[in-house]
UniProtKB/TrEMBL annotation:
Tagged with keyword Glycoprotein: no
InterPro entries for this protein: DUF3048_C, DUF3048_N, YerB-like_sf
Superkingdom classification of source: Bacteria
SUPFAM superfamilies, sorted: YerB-like
UniProt signal peptide: 1-22
Keywords: Signal
Protein name (Swiss-Prot/TrEMBL): Lipoprotein YerB
Gene3D superfamilies: YerB-like
Organism: Anoxybacillus mongoliensis
Length: 339
């Protein structure tokens, strides 16, 4: 009898131990969910498509580089220039006589060398302010001096940094030999307590209806009868390749040609304001112009929208093709020919 009772006890303990192990196993399984469940709880990775605000081109991260506008010399002795091929936008506008100056706006790319840098004019400062850009110049007209000293914009002037942030190229004669690097522009911003990182409002980039656009693969902008004041663009099937004074417009250091997706020509009223020949240019009233894209031309109206000169047609805004843009400003559209 005792033997039978002993065997029953052993059997009961054995069965209870198996049950406990199964219960513990079930608890552990509930406490440790499958790997697939853990993976579902992890944040999903998605490709975020960022674009540069002034070219519309893709970038792998959000850009917070402040726009920088540099006054570039365009006198024949200053050619070829340095760093123009990396500018997102370039304005070409008359200064004195039939000589133009260039306002190169950088955001997506930062050249090692930029120049030759030339003196400020007030209307270039206003164009720079349309992008809240840090304005870089070497010298100034009386009107530009008053404007800049009033605090109208952040600026770095070679008059105060010649031989430090700016350097002179001994192979060229002054005033056609002042240069600066993007790194030194940054140092200049730091010295003056200027913000160098900020979000830049993008230009309008979208495809326009070119159904009724006129074919235009060659563009000539004639600022005077002198050959050095002639600008030509030739469409190569993708971009407009630029030349000036009969010579290709290239980067001095790399020989990279200037080739852009948009050529925007505007007509604006010019007025001589002093004996030196300085000008006042009306960039506020709007007017007529041409927009060249993809080997075509459209007659447009331009408007000043928060300091930016933008194309419109029948009151409707037009878009830019993704890429770089050169804006040619002329006193009269008769100075522009295309075919």
């Amino acid at each position: 009898m005792r033997r039978l009772f002993f065997l029953l006890m052993i059997t009961t303990v054995f069965l209870l131990s198996i049950g406990c192990q199964r219960t513990e196993s079930n608890i552990k399984e509930k406490e440790s969910p499958p790997t697939t469940v853990e993976q579902k709880n992890e944040p999903e990775t998605k490709d975020i498509a960022w674009t540069f605000p002034l070219t519309g081109m893709p970038t792998d991260e959000k850009t917070m580089q402040r726009a920088v506008a540099v006054m570039i010399n365009n006198y024949p002795a200053a050619r070829p220039q340095s760093g123009l091929h990396k500018a997102d936008i370039v304005y070409e506008v008359l200064a004195e006589g039939d000589i133009t100056r260039l306002l190169a706006i950088y955001q997506s790319e930062q050249p090692d060398i930029i120049g030759p840098v030339r003196s400020a004019r007030d209307y270039f400062v206003h164009l720079s302010n349309g992008f809240h850009a840090l304005y870089v110049c070497h010298g100034w007209s009386p009107e530009a001096q008053t404007l800049l000293k009033s605090g109208a914009t952040d600026y770095v002037n070679g008059l105060f940094y010649d031989g430090t942030l700016f350097w002179r190229d001994r192979t060229r004669k002054a005033p056609h030999n002042s240069y600066i690097s993007f790194e030194n522009i940054k140092k200049g911003a730091e010295k003056n307590g200027y913000v160098f990182e900020e979000e830049v409002k993008p230009l309008p980039f979208f495809t326009n209806d070119l159904t009724n656009a006129i074919k235009a693969t060659n563009i000539d902008v004639v600022y005077s009868k002198r050959s050095y004041a002639h600008v030509h663009y030739a469409y190569d099937g993708t971009k407009y390749v630029r030349s000036s004074g009969g010579e290709p417009t290239v980067d001095r250091e790399t020989r990279t040609p200037i080739a852009v997706e948009n050529v925007f020509v505007i007509e604006a009223t010019h007025e001589i304001i002093d004996d030196y020949g300085r000008r006042e240019i009306d960039f506020t009233s709007g007017g007529k112009g041409y927009l060249f894209q993809k080997g075509t031309v459209q007659e447009i109206q331009w408007k000043n929208v928060d300091g930016r000169l933008l194309p419109y047609k029948n009151g409707v805004p037009l878009g830019f093709i993704k890429g770089k843009t050169w804006i040619q400003v002329v006193p009269d559209l008769k100075q522009v020919q295309y075919e």
